[in-house]
Specification:
alpha+beta
Length: about 110
């Protein structure tokens, strides 16, 4: 999804934009490679984990840093999932290497 204020793509917004484009035009162009695997998390899950950590007594925490994870998927995997509901969806890939995400610096492949 394009951030109108900065004229840049937001990293994870493709995972939402593909649903909008599938229903609106049945076409989606990914700015990531088909096999770029990125971590994703629902904001409500992220906030819940933060609240749960904050509610713990400090002495029960054994370390200072924790990783909270959810799911990871590729543009191809999400496209195949959407195609089960919108079979006519056409997906193309045009990686944008001008952005760090295009170089797979965030990818967990």
């Amino acid at each position: 999804m394009m951030d109108v204020a900065t004229n840049k793509w937001c990293i994870a917004d493709y995972a939402v934009q593909i649903f909008h484009d599938a229903l609106k035009t049945a076409k989606f162009q990914s700015f990531l490679r088909a096999d770029t695997r990125l971590p994703m998390m629902y904001i409500s899950d992220a906030l819940r984990s933060l609240c749960e950590f904050m509610a713990l007594p400090p002495e029960s925490l054994k370390q200072r840093t924790y990783n909270v994870t959810a799911m990871s998927f590729t543009p191809h995997e999400i496209a195949e999932s959407v195609k089960r509901h919108v079979p006519q969806l056409q997906v193309s890939y045009a990686p944008d290497y001008r952005q760090p995400i295009g170089t797979d610096s965030y990818s967990i492949n």
